[in-house]
Automatic annotation (TrEMBL):
<feature type="transmembrane region" description="Helical">
    <location>
        <begin position="62"/>
        <end position="82"/>
    </location>
</feature>
<dbReference type="GO" id="GO:0005886">
    <property type="term" value="C:plasma membrane"/>
</dbReference>
<dbReference type="InterPro" id="IPR016795">
    <property type="entry name" value="UCP021697"/>
</dbReference>
<keyword id="KW-0472">Membrane</keyword>
<dbReference type="InterPro" id="IPR010432">
    <property type="entry name" value="RDD"/>
</dbReference>
<protein>
    <submittedName>
        <fullName>Uncharacterized membrane protein YckC, RDD family</fullName>
    </submittedName>
</protein>
<feature type="transmembrane region" description="Helical">
    <location>
        <begin position="103"/>
        <end position="123"/>
    </location>
</feature>
<keyword id="KW-0812">Transmembrane</keyword>
<dbReference type="Pfam" id="PF06271">
    <property type="entry name" value="RDD"/>
</dbReference>
<keyword id="KW-1133">Transmembrane helix</keyword>
<dbReference type="InterPro" id="IPR051791">
    <property type="entry name" value="Pra-immunoreactive"/>
</dbReference>
<feature type="domain" description="RDD">
    <location>
        <begin position="24"/>
        <end position="135"/>
    </location>
</feature>
<feature type="transmembrane region" description="Helical">
    <location>
        <begin position="30"/>
        <end position="50"/>
    </location>
</feature>
<keyword id="KW-1003">Cell membrane</keyword>
């Protein structure tokens, strides 16, 4: 008996190869991450006085302001808008694999794992990062 070989990301999850509902590809994911982090940096600079050129001893907690705003954007937008601002701008959304609402705890755990970085850069054959696998989510094209 031979094992079936997946020919495209998301096939074993029952998702289409391309178009709406297919697994979001790396280019869109990276683009969304950049959009979200730039937006978080602008918000942090405008409201929290973030100074990216200050020495750590001078900056205090404001040097973490962009990452805190990034996390807040992820945690607020994923359950309410179906994805972060970057996801939505680039035509993606975050879904539960078993259907239904993503809830509140999944975006929190997912975001914490993204901030750690390593889980977000390790993918499976379906191009799902460990941060999505850990909470049963997938980033798909809208």
């Amino acid at each position: 008996m031979t094992d079936a070989v997946n020919t495209y990301p998301g096939e074993r999850l029952g998702m289409p190869e391309a178009g709406p509902g297919s697994i979001a590809r790396p280019g869109r994911r990276i683009g969304a991450l950049l959009i979200d982090y730039v937006a978080a940096t602008i918000i942090a600079t405008g409201f929290l006085g973030y100074d990216q050129f200050a020495l750590p001893s001078e900056a205090g907690l404001t040097m973490f302001a962009p990452m805190a705003v990034f996390a807040l954007l992820q945690i607020l937008f994923i359950p309410t808008a179906g994805g972060s601002p970057g996801h939505r701008v680039l035509g993606m959304r975050v879904i539960r694999l078993d259907g239904g609402w993503v809830g509140l705890w999944r975006p929190i755990v997912r975001t914490l794992l993204i901030i750690v970085v390593i889980p977000a850069v390790i993918w499976d054959a379906d191009q799902r990062g460990l941060h999505d696998k850990a909470v049963g989510l997938a980033l798909i094209r809208a």
